[in-house]
Amino acid sequence: MSSAGTSNKPASGHVSASGQLQQRRGLGDLIAKKPELVTLGLLIAICIAVAIANPAFLQPSTLIDIGRASVVTGLFALGVFVILAAGGIDVSFTAIAALTMYSITLLAINHSPNMPIYVVFLIAVAGGIALGVLNGFLVYTLRVPSLIVTIGTQYLFRGGLLAFVGTTWIMELPGQMGTFGRISLLEFETANGATVSLPVYFLILPAAAILTWWIMRRTLMGRAIFSLGGSPDVTARLGYNVKIVHLFVFGYAGALAGLAGIVHVTANRLANPFDLVGTEIAVIAAVVLGGARITGGTGSVIGTMLGVLLVVVVDNVLVMVGIPSTWQRVFVGAFILLAAAFFVTRQRKFKPAK
Amino acid sequence: MTQNTQKNRCFLELRNIHKRFGGVHALRGVDLSLEAGEVYHLLGENGCGKSTVIKIMAGAHPPSEGQIVLDGEVFNELTPIQSLDFGIETVYQDLSLIPNLSVMENVALGEQLVEGHGRLLRRIDRARMQETATKALSQVGLDVTSELMSTIVSELPLATRQLVAIARAIACEARLVIMDEPTTSLTRREVENLIDVVSRLRSQNVAVLFVTHKLEECYRIGGHAIVFRDGQCVAQGPIESYSRADLAELMTGRQISEKRYREGSPSEDTLMSLANFSMPGRFHNVGFNLRKGEVLGITGLSDSGRNELALAIAGIRPAASGTISINDKNIRIATASDSIDAGIAYVPEDRLSEGLFLSKSIYQNEVALILRKLAGFMGILDMKKGKEIAREISADMRLNTADIELPVSSLSGGNQQRVLIGRWLSINPEILVLHGPTVGVDVGSKDAIYQTIQKMAEDGMGLIIVSDDLPELLQNCDRILVMNAGEVVSDLNGASASEDDIYQAMLGSVQEGAA
Q1: pLDDT surpassing 90 at residue B510
Q2: Residues 6 or more apart from B294 whose CB is under 8 A from it?
Q3: A66 sits in which H/E element
Q4: Against a cut of 0.95, is the pTM above it?
Q5: What are the residues whose beta carbons fall under 8 Å from the beta carbon of B27, sequence distance 6 or more?
Q6: CA–CA separation, A108 vs B342, rounded Å?
């Protein structure tokens, strides 16, 4: 390189960006980069506290209970994570799930009681995609914040369900929909002799998590989603098709919601059109507890799953230590504030020097 | 691509391009042709249409009228991906990096996006991404470590970000690299490196289009000058054939001399005095006196501690130790409002993110600091008085509009800067600290800002200009303090020093320090 008459040392042409970065190492840095470690720490702390207060917590059946209870929230949360990463937010996914699960149950009862379960899932996913893509289309074309759009569509989907599809509970599920929820993967006997089983549908969650991880980390779409969450204008300028990204994230979240709806029906052996809607804030809370920023562009699948576990554990095990269920919300709320305060102070500390 | 057979043929041609934004006619019939392997300097004042023309080439804006010809193929408009596909790479002024992705991804993802013609459902080839990023980053002179590669861009210092943006542009097989003010936050060393990169691109038959206000760099790089004024191309030719005065006249349409603005001299009374000012790792034992009516320059490389010193005086990031006294009274500066109370006004370097409320009106921006003064009965603001004051400020600062209700975002960079300076003048500070007062500001606005600086000094204010624009310091300052590695290493007379003296002081002890 030309040295402009200053006879620089050979290495002086290189900028020591790494030198400035080295000052910010250690635990704090690690947490700033991997906020899900905080979630993990919190989760472990709660489990230890509960185990000390009530040793009955430490048995396989607890794990199975938690696993089973995580599936629906977990599927929803993966969808929310993808949308949050793209800088949006969705509150209509529970309505998508309710609408698809109830409509499909009715469809199966009235037209094809012996519909194989995979067809049920396919239709649910397709329906979820259609409704989700509608969200994405509206967000993109109207240029309205996705919160507003999805509040609108949540009302539409739910109102449509109750007004046009039905309001009665369906207790007798048709054919395979009724039996699928009972197929078990693992069975355990609890201390008091009852059998607890981990149902096969549990596998849907890890499968969806791995798929989401792969899309977000290994494909251009995943990077485009994070880009959009980081800076929408720049993303468009760099040649990413922002419209496709919008349709994809909302469609994907819709697909997961459709899936979650069917899991919910088969697990409970009941199709209740009033179910699910109202749980969206808890799901968003779980994702945020997993380290995703509500302002977009961050988060991870691992963190999301840990956030879900945290919420589910608080929901399910606080009872075991004698804390009334009404207190669960207090705990979740406190955790959210704690985690948020923690992440924010870390970010301030790590704001780069100009 | 049959790149070699097309040597010296026109690569990109603009034919009669017009662009209107609402009522504003930003480009009025631009004809331009760029050839492979040539270097062009697009010059002009802010608001003359330079950025718009770039955005049309990059496919970010469609033209309202006219045609774009690429390799003989005629387009009425381009999409970003088409433009990238033809090898047009842009380093935007705002850098256009994705803040939450890693350095490696920022530099090398585009290659794979363009290869798939924008298709997103593709697997990323990480090995290739790494290879491409390593090559490009080392070409711009960055020390490529795996830590740098995985660092999230928003955690990098500004100068490194600028280099990363340049690396992205040269990472792919570019055929035209457009650089919009690529050197604003680079040190001299990094600029030299960039000039090397440009000559390498040139030898690879790549066209380079620079947009800059730094004329000395244009002359150093050489090539063709393209001068814009009011949305039209007013001159085009080898840059050596124009003098600085010629170019300034072409850009502004009037004559501007490269004179020394500083005529007066400071009084004998010490206004502010700093002693043993230190912040570990940033600057140490800085001490100086500022007299009434004095214009004091502070410069140094970007890591010399000059920026931190300015922030410490402003109370934004207070110093760890040291004393500061104003009119022989010791004061404590722990917060920005301490500094304001002591009569120190600070105009930040990054006016867009640190100073201005862009979507608010000129009026609201200008009176932002004197709201307490305007508040009357029950805290209700006296709007009429406020507007009167705002009109006065606008006139004093010679804004190019009299309409104080316009949003600040509609102004050019130079006029925005004047609004910001005007706001600080509204509190009648005794000391005004200007941090990079003319970064990204055109020649005409510079002139107005310099005249304001001199007028304020004549009125007895003490001014500190923290800048790396050496002609600016030499034109305006009584004294110039040069910082290096956190210390003031030189105190030069503004009237007699030369750019070279300052450079020697800036770089000199870098070598001593390294030895």
Answers
A1: no
A2: B266, B267, B271, B457, B462, B463, B478, B479
A3: helix A60-85
A4: no
A5: B17, B18, B19, B49, B52, B53, B56, B63, B231, B232
A6: 77
Tell me the CA end-to-end span of chain A in Å, nearest whole number: 27
Of A295, A188, A19, A237, the closest CA to residue B95 belongs to A237
Are A276 and A118 within 8 A, CB to CB?
Answer: no
Q: How far is A3 from chain B (nearest CA, A)?
A: 7
Q: Would you tell me which residues 269-308 of chain A have a C-beta closer than 8 angstroms to some C-beta of chain B?
A: 297-298
Separation of CA A240 from chain center: 25
Provide φ and ψ at B397, rounded to 5°: -85, 0
Exposed/middle/buried for B273, CB within 10 Å: 0-12, 13-18, 19+?
middle
Counts for chain B of helices (H) and strands (E), in that order: 18, 20
At A15, is the pLDDT very low, low, confident or very high (cuts 50, 70, 90)? Answer: very low
Per-residue pLDDT reduced to its tens digit, B285-338: 999 999 999 999 999 877 788 888 999 998 888 888 888 999 888 888 888 888
- Best CA proximity match to B470, nearest among B278, B247, B217, B252: B217
Cβ–Cβ contact A30 with B under 8 A: no
Phi and psi angles of residue B399, each rounded to the nearest 5 degrees, phi first: -65, 155
Pairing of strands B487-493, B479-484: antiparallel
Helix (H) or strand (E) holding A283: helix A280-289
| C-beta separation of A153 from A260 below 8 A | no
Reply yes or no on whether the pLDDT at B116 is more than 70: yes
Q: Is A25 on the interface with B (CB under 8 A)?
A: no
For chain A, say whether B361 makes contact (Cβ under 8 Å). Answer: no
- Interatomic CA distance for residues A128 and A257, integer angstroms: 6
Cα B44-B233-B60 angle, rounded to 5 deg: 75
Q: Chain B: residue nearest A293 by CA?
A: B100
Return phi, psi of residue A173, to 5°: -80, 145
**Parallel, antiparallel or unpaired: strands B10-21 and B24-35:** antiparallel
Strand-strand pairing, B176-180 and B487-493: unpaired
- DSSP bridge partners of A199: A184
Helix axes A328-349, A36-53, angle to 10 degrees: 140
B466-497 pLDDT tens trace: 988 888 898 999 999 999 888 899 899 988 88
The A residues from 217 to 246 touching B (CB cutoff 8 Å) are 218-221, 223-224, 226-227, 229-231, 234-241, 244-245
Average pLDDT over residues B494-501: 84
Q: Within the 150-179 window of chain B, which residues sit less than 8 Å (CB to CB) from chain A?
A: 151-152, 154-160, 163
d(CA B50, CA B179): 11
> Cβ separation of B157 and A245 shorter than 8 Å?
no
Please report, in angstroms and rounded to a whole number, the separation of the first and last CA atoms in chain B.
49
Identify the closest residue of chain B to A232 by CA–CA distance: B98
Q: Is the ipTM of this complex over 0.95?
A: no
Question: For position A347, what pLDDT does the model report?
Answer: 57
